[in-house]
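Before the break, one more example. Copy the sequence into your notebook; we will annotate it together after we see the structure.
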Amino acid sequence: MKVCMITFQYPPMFNGGVATVSYRLAKNLAAHGVEMHVVAPGAHLIEERIFPTFEEDVVVHRTFPALGTYFGDHAELGRIADYIIALHGEVNFDLVHALFVVPAGQIGAVLSGQIDLPLVVSIHGSDIELMRYNPVLSPTVRWILENASEVTAVSSDLLDKAQRFAGITKGWVIPNAVDPRSFDSLSVRELAANHGWRFQVIVESCIRAKRRGGPVVGTVGMVRPAKGFSFLLRAFHKLVQKFPRAHLLIVGDFMNPDEKKRVFDEIKAKGLRRKVSLVGFVPASQVAAWLREMDIFVLPSLHEGSPCALMEAMACGLSVIATDIGGIPDIITDGVHGLLVPPSDSEVLAEKIIALIDDNTMRTRLGTAAKQRMECEFSPEIEINKWMDVYVSVKKGTQTSVQILH
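Here is what the structure looks like once it is written out:
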């Protein structure tokens, strides 16, 4: 089978959730015998020629910046479509798989109609959560979903929203997977040896907090309003009233300079400057090293699909607390694999963190159950088998009603 995957993000130019998923899927599908061509955003100027590279059995075509933005340059998007049409003439693809609705799905939908290729469109989160409210993008999103051969989503909640929005009955739910084999075995102290003094200060602050009894509460993700970091800071401020030695570890870059200033101002206003470590960008392979420094992982998001950061924390055996939204209840049964809290409720979040700190037995039980759930139900092998089912169904032209593949 030959698949053209068009993605909104791909490493190393991007390191968000879609980048993690597209890299894992492309690599593992190629290992499964699928000829994978990934068309990804790149830094080329529109007049420059695209030269594909062969990376871990995947042919990667890094194109133009427009593919990595919601409102990409139309000329660049058109050039990408022309490039894929010419590539199809050489490869003869069986299908196109678009990760993220706009702009990847938009290019895929145009191509599907022009060269008569089946199209799979994958929904990952904000492409439905936010775009359906955008007066400019919402008609395009609806048209893409209606013209896809199959629609997949990483959670049943996202698929339900897409079906109601676009009036479609087709769809598969395929949650993300987590692959511990991609984790680096290095400790944060070993990582610090290759970084500057600022990074080393953060590492030593975190290690010192653990040595003093902590606890170290942590989170991973792009620092932006939808991720609920203000909600977490308010809860942490309450936490330090009872545990003065508590430390907050935030692993992830800022969305923009304004967001960075807002977060720093909030930390300063709450008197938490010496109790919060902001690590900044960390390569995906090194995230586990920071997770191992945490006692409790918190995901305070206001909306989510199937969050990779949460699943990676669970795979590391951490006890986790997350908001009861989106696809998170598909991953966590409250009180079994972790704890769920209402979004934006810092009082309840602080109470749950304190409960875990006070009850080491519960913390261990939840962490063990979380790790077992990831190993048994969210492995890369299970994920790839599900995707092969989708590809075979699409190739045969068999449209499905809703399939929930847990």
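The mean pLDDT is 93. The chain has 16 helices and 15 strands. Try to locate both features in your own notes.
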